[in-house]
Write a structure and sequence with these properties.
This protein has 223 residues and is an all-alpha fold. It has one domain. Helices cover 71% and strands 2% of the residues. Strands 1-2 form a two-stranded antiparallel sheet. Helix 1 packs antiparallel against helix 2 and helix 2 packs antiparallel against helix 5. The longest helix has 35 residues. It is globular, with a radius of gyration of 17 Å. The relative contact order is 0.13. The C terminus is likely disordered.
């Protein structure tokens, strides 16, 4: 796959984004930590808060990243922004306005994978800072890839299982996962893992072992 921009142009753009918007990214990270902590500790899961958080994440990535910055180097960013706004609207409509999503922190067969992905998304900026030896020229919190990983983890805790909410994260797990190899962002290698886990979760009708579902998915793909 040939990217329509250079490695240097991409990381220069990240530096511009981080310089301009780091306070908002820091605030979004803190809000995400607080909402996830409340999800773990509260007897009554903050379902609307979780859905609202995810709506903000996808809307922010659409407007503040794709439209305001990424369109400078990639015309496809306009399309990306559109589908991210659709995802934001879905979380707002289904989870906040209609209150149709429930997020349970309690242990299920998906619990370890779900919280591993959530924790990974929260430490995502630190992983990139270590890898690239920089606090500026790196993908940070609130960008599409950590948003996808965080969303995947939280959707593994959600009921009912929503295929509609899984479509855009699955699309970005492929796009972002492919670009990660070309751009050398190894932190984004978690995207294919997120995509496979989410695909198995929404396609299955029971909570049997995720490893069994993944194995069946791989076998089906090989036929």
């Amino acid at each position: 796959m040939q990217l329509p921009f250079t490695h240097e142009a991409f990381f220069d753009l990240l530096a511009d984004y981080n310089s301009a918007l780091w306070p908002a990214a820091a605030a979004m990270w803190l809000a995400s930590v607080l909402v996830c902590a409340r999800l773990v500790l509260s007897r009554h899961p903050p379902n609307r808060w979780v859905s609202g958080l995810l709506a903000v994440h996808w809307g922010w990535a659409a407007v503040a990243y794709h439209i305001a910055f990424f369109t400078r180097i990639n015309p496809a960013a306009w399309l990306f922004a559109a589908i991210f706004l659709v995802q934001s609207a879905l979380f707002l409509w289904l989870g906040v306005i209609r209150d149709q999503l429930s997020f349970t922190p309690r242990r299920t067969t998906w619990w370890p994978i779900a919280w591993t992905l959530v924790a990974y998304a929260l430490i995502y900026p630190a992983i990139n800072a270590v890898q690239h030896d920089s606090l500026l020229r790196i993908p940070t919190f609130g960008l599409p890839c950590p948003t996808t990983i965080l969303t995947g983890g939280l959707l593994l805790l959600a009921s009912p299982r929503s295929r509609a909410l899984a479509v855009v994260p699955l699309i970005w797990s492929v796009i972002g996962g492919s670009a990660a190899v070309l751009l050398g962002v190894s932190a984004d290698y978690a995207l294919p893992v997120t995509g496979v886990a989410l695909a198995v979760f929404v396609l299955r009708k029971s909570d049997r072992s995720p490893s069994v579902g993944v194995l069946q998915l791989v076998r089906s793909a090989g036929r």
